[in-house]
Write a structure and sequence with these properties.
The chain is of the alpha+beta class. It has a single domain, classed as Roll (Nuclear Transport Factor 2, Chain: A), CATH 3.10.450. It is 44% helix and 24% strand.
């Protein structure tokens, strides 16, 4: 089973600049970061490292499921990069800075090194200072998790103040 998380080859523009380059606009830096993220995921996944997929999940999911639990999920057991070779970002529509619709060209490499292509749009999210494309977790649950964490932190701080 090939999930829609296949990713990979970066464009020449991506190779020429880094997201931290001071001459780039925020959108340009985000575009490079998105391509770099997708390239890293497919590279690691093709080499059998499914932690690349786990790393793309939201914090609440990782709080509920350890990496070992993640590997035991039926869908994860079936996931295989198969012939997925690359993921070329063709366009990005940003929604504020919290999410983006990313148009991609998915590159498949056959046994004879022949290439075929498919096109899709993925939603990516900006969280914890980086862009992610979760396969199993959802942004609305992450927001609930962050709010619960904020309330717990606030209560802990108030309790600490009462102790002094």
């Amino acid at each position: 089973m090939l999930l829609a998380l296949v990713v990979g080859c970066s464009s020449e523009q991506t190779d020429q600049a880094e997201p931290g380059d001071a001459n780039l606009t925020q959108r340009e830096a985000d575009s490079i970061a998105i391509q770099n993220t997708l390239t890293e995921v497919i590279t690691r996944w093709r080499h059998g490292d499914k932690s690349a997929l786990y790393d793309q999940e939201f914090d609440y999911f990782k709080f509920e499921f350890s990496y070992d639990d993640f590997l035991e999920l039926d869908n994860v057991k079936k996931m295989n990069a198969d012939s997925a070779y690359g993921f070329n970002v063709q366009g990005i529509k940003f929604f504020d800075r919290d999410s983006a619709a990313v148009d991609v060209e998915v590159v498949f490499k056959g046994l004879t090194d022949s290439l075929t292509f498919d096109y899709d749009t993925y939603t990516m999210y900006y969280t914890n200072g980086r862009w992610v494309r979760p396969s199993f977790s959802a942004p609305q649950y992450q927001k609930e998790f962050e709010e619960a964490r904020r309330i717990a932190d606030s209560a802990a701080a108030a309790e600490e103040e009462l102790e002094y």
